[in-house]
Amino acid sequence: MRLQKYLAHCGVASRRKSEELIQQGLITVNGQVVTEMGYKVTVGKDEVTFKGKLVVPEKQKLYIMLNKPEGVITSSNDQFNRKTVIDLVATDYRIYPVGRLDYDTSGLILLTNDGEFANQMMHPKYKIPKTYHALVKGSPTQVEIESFEKGLLIDGSYTHPASLKILKEDTLSLLEIIISEGRNRQVRKMCDVIGHPVRHLKRVAFGNILLGSLKEGHWRYLTVAEINELKERSSIQ
Ligand code: URA
């Protein structure tokens, strides 16, 4: 890893500021001052110091929510160089998304560097409810709503009980849909099955975390209370 990246990763300073520290001769690697930009260090092997103190990776855990716009990929890197959710969050930590939203879905996505937390949030056993606003063609009948709620056959198996509420009825209706699974394109497929294809889809809540007024493309750290509530949900159920 490049020295300035390592310093940033360890929380010494931003990458740009770390470059200044290197130029100023304040960083040593294995006892030698290094002023060469881009000098490569092997994490866990080379001994890096700043002001005489050993620099080690921080163990701080980050929990972030992002309002993903449509047209952004939920992954850490994309083979076609399209914008990813990671590109939208300014941090030197290596974070990754918790689950995924489709390229054409917007809304709330969590990002973290806490692998244990990410696994628990995605594990089907904890049934974390995910709430969506879907703009669909037409308006579902009571019979269609009931079949949606009971479970629909998609990709060869039935979906778990879900909830569907009509928020606004028109030629394009606005639905509030809550599912507790995370199957591929699940909301879109369920709406297709009841004959009301999705035109726009946005996730507005993940468990107790609400998207609220966070603007598209913006992110914030979760509060301690939000993190604790999510963690409790997965350990007490
Ligand atoms: N269901 C979908 O169909 N798409 C998403 O992005 C999330 C849930």
Entry summary:
The protein is α+β, with helices and mostly antiparallel strands. The chain contains six helices and 15 strands. It folds into three domains: 52 residues, RNA-binding S4 domain (Structural Genomics Hypothetical 15.5 Kd Protein In mrcA-pckA Intergenic Region, Chain A, Roll), CATH 3.10.290; 83 residues, Pseudouridine synthase I, catalytic domain, N-terminal subdomain (Alpha-Beta Plaits), CATH 3.30.70.580; 78 residues, Alpha-Beta Plaits (2-Layer Sandwich), CATH 3.30.70.
Give an overview of the whole structure.
The chain is α+β, with helices and mostly antiparallel strands and 237 residues long. 23% of the residues lie in helices and 28% in strands. The strands form three sheets. Strands 5, 6, 7, 8, 11, 12, 13, 14 and 15 form a nine-stranded mixed β-sheet that branches. The protein has a four-stranded antiparallel β-sheet with strand order 2-1-3-4, with no helix packed on it. The longest helix is centred in the C-terminal third of the chain and has 13 residues, at 224-236. It is elongated, with a radius of gyration of 22 Å. The site of uracil has 8 residues, from helix 5.
